[in-house]
Structure formats: C-alpha cells, structure tokens
Amino acid sequence: MEEYILDSLQITRRRNSEEKKKKTQVILFFADRRKISFFRFFIFNKSYRWNRLAMANAASGMAVHDDCKLKFLELKAKRTFRTIVYKIEDKQVIVEKLGEPEQSYDDFAASLPDNECRYAIYDFDFVTEENCQKSKIFFIAWSPDTAKVRDKMIYASSKDRFKKELDGIQVELQATDPTEMGLDVFKSRTN
User: Fold this and answer.
1) Strand ranges (DSSP E) for 14-132?
2) What is the Cα–Cα distance from 29 to 156, expressed in whole angstroms?
3) Ramachandran assignment for 79, one of left (phi > 0), alpha (psi -120 to 50 degrees), beta (any other)
4) Which DSSP category does 136 fall into?
C-alpha cells in the first residue's frame, strides 16, 4: 500500500513538473516571438492578482507617503483638521497643507492653486432636515483648466490608487474651477 502511494506521488510530481515545463516553453515562445522585455515577461509569468497590482503601480508610478495616511486618519477619527491638501512631488504624494478645524470653506478654496493640480480632503459639516448635525468627508480632485497637460495626466492616472490608500472617503468631486466645488455642490451631494 505504501509503495502504491509513493508511486502515485511520484507520478503526480512528474506531471506537475511536465506541465510547468510546457507552460514555460509556451511563455518563452511568445517572449521570443514578440521580443518583449524581461520585465513584461516576468509580470506575464506571475499570478493574476500580482499582475494587476504591478500594472496599477506601473501605470501611476506614484508612491504614497505614510504621512498622507496618518493625517487622513487623524482627520477621520479625531477631527483635528478641517482640510488636507495633497501634492505630487518627486513621484510621491505628500501632504502640502493642513487646515485647522476652525478654517472656513473660503480659506480652503483659496488654498488651492490657480494653475496646478492637487488632491484635497474636506470635512463638510451640515445639518439634516431632521435637525441632526452630521459631517461627510469629501475627496476633491482639483485639476484647473490652466494647469499643464502633463500634470493633469499624472494626477488623473494616480487618483484611483491614491484614493484606495485613504479608507473612509464618502463623496468624490472632480473640479476644474471653483464653481464646481462650491458650497451648494457640497450641500447637494450630502443627500
């Protein structure tokens, strides 16, 4: 009985190694035919989940500084800030400005540059029809028309990956001028 089990294990191992050889041969054939780079070959050969992650990072190419997540968690849990403005610098998203809890909406709108893209978080307080005090966390992708096209592309391609890092965003806005993110827009999006 033990010999039978050992024989069946060896047969299974042989089959697995033959399948791996065939798979490698097929991949090498396509790598040779298409003359793709080693990096693409390496990604092609890995699992689907790893492949998706690698492609997402390769597409945006942006790292997220740990301080970005920590400041967002402070805003979410302790309400120590009203606003956070993020900036991409040296292929990394960093915190540019923090707004105090007393900061008004006008101060926040003035803190966004006229000709550069930014990501911003705004903690919007409002009163419901039932007279309850509530707040919602807004993610704003600020991309003015006067910004450079390259910057717009970088911010647009990195936005989804960056948003995934900030767990707890309730509403997303994309704005190209201040009227697209006015207080009336915030109020309409709270329902």
Assistant:
1) 63-64, 83-88, 92-99, 118-127
2) 36
3) left
4) E
Distance from C-alpha of 22 to C-alpha of 16, rounded to nearest angstrom: 10
CA separation for the pair 60, 85 (Å, rounded): 19
Report residue 4 as tokens. Answer: 């039978």
User: How many CB atoms are located within 10 Å of the residue 160 CB?
Assistant: 11
In the chain, DSSP finds a helix count (H) and a strand count (E) of 7, 6
**pLDDT tens digits, the chain, 191 residues: what are they?**
555 554 554 555 666 666 666 665 655 555 554 544 444 544 444 444 444 444 444 445 678 999 999 999 999 999 999 999 999 999 899 999 999 999 999 999 999 999 999 999 999 999 998 999 999 999 999 999 999 999 999 999 999 999 999 999 999 999 999 999 999 999 999 87
List, as own/partner pairs, every contact residues 185-189 make where C-beta atoms lie below 8 angstroms and the sequence separation is at least 24, other chains included.
Answer: 186/105, 186/122, 186/124, 186/126, 186/138, 187/126, 189/136, 189/138
How far is CA 56 from each of CA 60, 90, 96, 104, rounded to the nearest angstrom?
A: 6, 18, 24, 36
Instruction: Give bridge partners of residue 174 from the DSSP assignment.
Output: 141
What distance in Å separates the CA atoms of residue 178 and residue 109, rounded to the nearest whole number? 7
